[in-house]
Amino acid sequence: MQGSRSTIKGIFTAIITPFKRNAIDIESLEQLIEVQIVSAVNGIVIADSTGEGHSLSQSEYYALVKNVAAVLKNRIPLVVSVPHCSTTQVIDVITRLKNKTIEAFLVAAPYYLRPQQEGIFEHYRQITNKTKANIVMCNIPYRCSINIENATTLRIMDLPGISAVVDLSGDLEYPTILRDGNDHVPILTGNDTTYAAHRLNGGDGIVSTLSNLIPKEMVALERAICEGDYKNTKKLHKLIFPLAKSMSCETNPVPLKYAISCIYKYVTPNVRLPLTDATTSTRQLIHTLLRKFEREKQEHEILSITQT
């Protein structure tokens, strides 16, 4: 399975896990996935922080993977997040799930345990060595309380089976520095607000929260960047930025789920404890920004960009 590195590029939607009466709403999830496919995103990521993977029971987690793989039918790549910090647990989950319907497994830095840099490297070395699966390394310091340093990241990128790196450090020098040391492993960001800049600095794509809500516009932004269309890159970034910024006004995916429920009426805004539903001020902000987004898209003829 190792070696399929070139597929983890472009727009990968970190899709939400919709709930209804506190159970996973598979029917709504299927509809959301179809929207993503029609919008031409490059892939789907499930069970990460946006997908509330840590809030799922073991049986729910495995059922989610099975159902999403069945819906996708290999039409676009599926990346499955493994919500564990224990090396042995990560290996066990991947070993159980590894099959041809899963393109890669997203493995975040070992949170809570806060290992040294050598421990982080060994974590990924053991996982890639023992599973022989495609692994996407994710550096997300503000959730994990550790930062994978550039030197460590470059060592990890040289491991067989590392299919991509996802960067949520907020450091826009990150893709340039890593690309100078490794020219073949894709480098993606996880920050919608700085996506265009990250891409122009050497990045290869994004694991996007916002593409749950506006997939066509995110795909259009990716296309404009790839084509060197600076005018439309700037126009789309300006349009997208306020919505992207608002997704962090409360803990992800609280604002996102509420925004999605406004657009796709079949989806509830519910999140799992210990998260709680969006506050009144967040709801008001989302309504304001969604109206502004639609108005500006029409005024500046951005709809035609997303449809070409």
UniProtKB/TrEMBL annotation:
GO terms for biological process: diaminopimelate biosynthetic process; lysine biosynthetic process via diaminopimelate. The keyword Lyase applies. Pfam families: DHDPS. InterPro entries: Aldolase_TIM, DapA, DapA-like. Pyruvate binds at T50, V207. It is an enzyme of class 4 (lyase). One of its GO terms (molecular function) is 4-hydroxy-tetrahydrodipicolinate synthase activity. Keywords: Amino-acid biosynthesis, Cytoplasm, Diaminopimelate biosynthesis, Lyase, Lysine biosynthesis, Schiff base. Gene3D superfamilies: Aldolase class I. It catalyses: L-aspartate 4-semialdehyde + pyruvate = (2S,4S)-4-hydroxy-2,3,4,5-tetrahydrodipicolinate + H2O + H(+). Its EC number is 4.3.3.7. One of its GO terms (cellular component) is cytosol. Transmembrane segments: none annotated. Pathway: Amino-acid biosynthesis; L-lysine biosynthesis via DAP pathway; (S)-tetrahydrodipicolinate from L-aspartate: step 3/4. Belongs to the DapA family. PANTHER family: 4-HYDROXY-2-OXOGLUTARATE ALDOLASE, MITOCHONDRIAL (PTHR12128:SF66), DIHYDRODIPICOLINATE SYNTHASE (PTHR12128). Catalyzes the condensation of (S)-aspartate-beta-semialdehyde [(S)-ASA] and pyruvate to 4-hydroxy-tetrahydrodipicolinate (HTPA). This is 4-hydroxy-tetrahydrodipicolinate synthase. It comes from Neorickettsia findlayensis.
